[in-house]
Amino acid sequence: MGDVVAGFHAVWEFESDSVVIRYERGIRTPRLFQALGERRIPLSAIEDVTLAPGKRGTVVLCLVPRSGADPLMEAAAGQLKEGSDPYRLVLPVERETLAAYYADALKERLTESGPSDRHLIAAPEAPLQFKAYDGKATFDGTSVQFRWSWTGASTAKWKAGDQSFPVTALSGVEWRSPEVFEGHLRLLPREPGAGSPAQPDQDPASVVFGLGYGPVHESLPFAAAVLAAARNRPAAAVTVPARRDPADIAERIRHLSELYQAGLVTDEEFSAKKAELLAEL
Predict the structure, then answer these.
(1) What is the reported pLDDT for 195?
(2) Which Pfam families did the record assign (predicted)?
């Protein structure tokens, strides 16, 4: 088709085999759109195209992705608010006839339907990071690191120490929006242990969100990138831990001593954790 349609916060370009969505970076544009920047949606990833009345004199042209085709929407699991849906193009009602033309033209070219057995849409690229309430999460494309904060992390997480998870050991992610109660990001192991998982604030494989921590535009692209990497790397791998900064080790031993003096860790736990930190030098 080769045409371009500009709506509020985004521009859609219709190519022969895909729809390229370019999001604006204006102050009124949802921050998730700004974080995504540009996305190419193959026609093979689209289930349907809809056109419906919008709010205050607008119409909404919407792509409906196939289940399993987009790691971002799979990670979101239906939790995005309507205004943050990256597949909606809002247009003035005066352009309804034009929108209907493109909706019909796209529908005629769709050939796939039903769930997809693989991701067809690219995930956000690493490296990615965000600050959660109880720690900092980073992803370099091959592994996820959780580094606990001094004030927000639970004693259970401090005892476990900072965590590193190769994506080869993960089966997926569990993302709960920071806009709801008990928002968090949990990494799901490829071989889960017995019993129910601990609450996110006690689980070293989770970081918890809070007011101003883990916002959607940071934590959701992060979750999508990890999910896509985990699905694309089925084989296990051995990783060699990197040596830590001596100053960082000294600070963590100091914090461990404070926990010990406050009676939050036992003699055995203190000795074992201190030896573990010293071994990283």
Answers:
(1) 64
(2) DUF4429, SHOCT
Angle between helices 267-279 and 246-261 (to 10 degrees): 180
CA angle 122, 73, 82 (to 5 degrees): 125
pLDDT computed for residue 238 by the predictor: 41
CB 122 within 8 A of CB 116: no
Q: Look at residues 169, 158, 156, 270 and name the one whose alpha carbon lies nearest to residue 226.
A: 169
Q: pLDDT averaged over consecutive 10-residue blocks of the chain (281 residues)? A: 88 95 93 97 97 95 97 98 96 96 95 95 97 97 96 93 96 96 95 77 96 96 98 54 66 74 74 76 67
Q: Cis bond leading into 127, ω under 30°? A: yes
> SS3 letters for 148-201?
ECCCCCCHHHHHHCCEEEEHHHEEEEEEECCCCCCCEEEEEECCCCCCCCCCCC
Which residues share a beta bridge with 269? none
Q: Distance (Å, rounded) from C-alpha 228 to C-alpha 54?
A: 32
- pTM equals 0.83
How big is the CA angle at 10 (ends 138 and 223), to the nearest 5 degrees? Answer: 20
